[in-house]
Amino acid sequence: MSxxxxxxxxxxxxxxxxxxxxxxLYLRRRAAHxxxxxxxxxxxxxxxxxxxxxxxxxCLSGNLSQTPGARFLWLIDEDDLEARTIAETLPxxxxxxxxMGPPPRDGENPKVAKLxxxxxxxxxxxxxxxxxxxxxxxxxxxxxISSLEPGGLATGLPLYVNHSNGGSRLVTGFVNGxxxxxxxxxxxxxxxRTINGMFYVAxxxxxxxxGGFEAIRTSxxxxxxxxxxxxxxxxxxxxxxxxxPISTTxxxxxxxxxxxxxxxIFGSRYVRENYSFVSMVLILLPTxxxxxxIVIGLAAGWPWLLGALALLMAKAAANRLLRQRxxxxxxSLTDVAYEMAADLLTPVHIxxxxxxxxxxxxRRRRIRMTDDRITYE
Length: 377
Fold this sequence. Notes:
The chain has helices at 2-31, 56-66, 81-89, 110-118, 140-146, 166-176, 179-188, 204-210, 222-232, 253-273, 277-300, 302-325, 333-355, and strands at residues 43-49, 71-77, 96-101, 126-130, 153-160, 199-203, 237-246, 359-362, 365-370, 373-376. It is an alpha/beta fold.
């Protein structure tokens, strides 16, 4: 028992050290990249908007103030009266245009359907996609565009910042506890097969050559689908070091489990189609091992349990160092506790995602997957 437990403990420690070291090396390389002056008037930001989060108005106005010069297309479904009211009550600027359209039909991704409707309206050299709960930091859009390689795509790193309740903090712990240890490391190894779909940017002409949003209108996972379009063209995909805050308010236990269920369904599809030694080291082992370590600790005695907790804390500490390197907040001991809790709960969410019916909520929309087809209930 002690030998097997020791092997697993050492393995988790090595995996964490490898992920953190690779991420550190990649971010250090990105820090040497110099931002060139850029006229943001050459950028159109597409923002698919769906009501349901109380921070929506603050996020929309925050992007306007922190990305001066860029044009915005706010994409709203005709039946989403709350979103339209919020948009129209904000002090609209000449840079903002509301684009209204019908709600998604069965088979259509609700986010991509909006993007496909608006993309023909883009007349600028660059186009960016930005989720409605995401706020770009000052200079972030220019830095991302300056990182673009010819014909390629660039994306940022998510930083969840909503600490309003326990559910929100668990979601924050899950994302912040995994993104910085996964995206940069995969990029350094040349093994990145998807992107952070909450923010990305490309040359408009390059996206047109890739097939545009019409080519992925029925795809369940828009981030993986858009990355696949560019990889199919053998176009470069750049993981930048732009750390952008995201505010998602979790309203209760049902909402929390619904969010995690949706993400686990998305993630399982990605892993199945991209299984490799790298994905095992960067994704699978770090996901399944935390509860295993705790169970071993409970069975083997309190020294082993303390060792398991110490390993999870060390992982959180490594993640904190990476976040601080990018200018992000260090976080409190409470944040560390929620990150550890999220690590322990993730395998549970995976089990429920596979065990339950193939349905999930996307804010106020109820979606059922039938043979990879999206159906609205």
